[in-house]
Write a structure and sequence with these properties.
By secondary structure, this protein is mainly α. It contains six helices and no strands.
């Protein structure tokens, strides 16, 4: 059973290599092509991340408010989230630290009481949505 995924992976690699040889590159300079690929992957990743975030938020908020919440994220929030994700995915100790921190925050919030934490969270979400709506209107 363990051999089937490896065989499939080998076949996929062979097909990709064959397709890669026949595909024309955007530039004759390989470094330029690498930069182009990096930009496309990062842009696609960002679009996908925003789509997933909006979809998760739409379970509780309207589509317009969910979009405003995602758009209202500050640069600091984005940088902290990126740094924590990078720390968690680069090493096992990093994953333990980040996971432990998330667990501690969840337990702390539960201890404080659902009503208090929910009210604080709702206020934070409203501020972020208003900020996102301002940016949407001003841009």
């Amino acid at each position: 059973m363990a051999k089937a995924p490896k065989v499939l992976a080998d076949k996929t690699k062979a097909v990709a290599r064959k397709a890669g040889k026949s595909a024309s590159a955007a530039s004759p300079n390989p470094m330029t092509n690498l930069v182009i690929a990096d930009i496309v992957l990062r842009g696609g990743g960002q679009i996908l991340r925003h789509l997933v975030e909006r979809t998760l938020l739409q379970a509780k908020y309207s589509p317009g408010k969910a979009k405003a919440i995602v758009k209202g994220r500050s640069m600091t929030q984005t940088m902290v989230g990126t740094a924590l994700a990078r720390l968690a995915t680069r090493s096992v100790p990093g994953a333990l630290v980040v996971g432990g921190g998330l667990l501690a925050k969840t337990l702390y919030d539960r201890k404080r009481g659902k009503a208090v934490v929910a009210a604080e969270g709702a206020a934070q979400v409203d501020r972020q949505a208003k900020k996102g709506a301002k940016e949407k209107g001003g841009a």
